[in-house]
Amino acid sequence: MAKKSVASLQTGSKRLTKAIKMVKSPKSGAYTFVEAIMDPDNVKDFLSKK
């Protein structure tokens, strides 16, 4: 993982976080971005998974 980014979003009464992770493809070697919107508690788990 070469880059990670986390932004906080607020929608109404819920607090959400958008996490962006750069993942290297094992086949081609190219990097792709994986984005997810989740609770702030789950961000650490998302960024640590490969």
From TrEMBL:
This is Uncharacterized protein DUF4295. It comes from Lutibacter oceani. InterPro entries: DUF4295.
